[in-house]
Write a structure and sequence with these properties.
Layout: H1 4-15, H2 17-47, H3 55-59, H4 62-85, H5 108-111, H6 129-135, H7 138-168, H8 176-180, H9 183-209
């Protein structure tokens, strides 16, 4: 007989499998990046004739912070742009797109808002006014906010890491405003942005013609290529 507490834990894991699975993978990848980055950083210090730093010292360093945050901000930019752009932009045959006649924010009836909200709808979906306007865009706004915060964190950590390198080379440090106009900052940002945008475009196009059985990111295997907005 399964105890209620054990059954509750199993149900929690089942009900939160995506967030738990990807959260665990994120922590493992972050730990791997930290170890690899620490090793690479100390190798560079050896090349420069400087003393190594400990692992905890590296975790608190601007070098580690900028490497982490520059990837975060590109991911959040991807989701922010994708969420807002797909309100209007369509891709015939892709499950990543809405149906071809539904471009735009859609009607209150389609979105179950205002007087069309049901008893099980989120409370702010039916209240109207500013709260409804904010809630109806809350996912995109959250991604935009996370992008801006991670972009700011990257720029602050980036200028600190850049200035540390400047000082090691006996050159003058620069200010934050100078750094965000520098080639180093934009090289770090744009090399991540272009890869994320390419991945989104590839997913939208390839999902028109290719399938993954059982995945909600794919159309059902037997669905015609031209079927749009159909998920498995």
């Amino acid at each position: 007989m399964i105890r209620p507490r054990a059954a509750g834990r199993r149900r929690f894991v089942r009900d939160n499998g995506i967030s738990l699975g990807f959260g665990a993978a994120f922590l493992l990848a972050l730990a791997g990046q930290a170890v690899a980055g620490w090793t690479e950083f100390n190798n560079q210090l050896s090349t420069d004739g400087l003393a190594h730093i400990g692992f905890l010292g590296y975790l608190a360093s601007s070098d580690f912070a900028v490497d982490v945050t520059e990837n975060w901000q590109s991911e959040y930019l991807q989701f922010f742009l994708y969420i807002f752009a797909t309100v209007w932009l369509l891709q015939r045959g892709s499950p990543e797109s809405k149906e071809m006649d539904k471009a735009g924010p859609e009607s209150d009836k389609d979105q179950r808002m205002g007087e069309h909200a049901g008893p099980d709808s989120p409370r702010w979906a039916g209240v109207g006014g500013v709260r409804q306007a904010v809630f109806s865009r809350s996912l995109g706004l959250a991604m935009a906010g996370l992008f801006l915060l991670s972009w700011l964190a990257q720029s602050i950590a980036g200028v600190a890491a850049y200035n540390e390198e400047q000082l090691r080379q006996l050159q003058a440090p620069i200010g934050w405003t100078q750094y965000i106009a520098s080639a180093d900052f934009w090289s770090r940002s744009l090399q991540n942005w272009q890869s994320e945008l390419l991945a989104v475009a590839s997913m939208a196009i390839l999902s028109v013609y290719l399938r993954q059985r059982g995945s909600p990111e794919s159309k059902p295997v037997g669905t015609p290529h031209a079927a749009t907005g159909t998920e498995g």
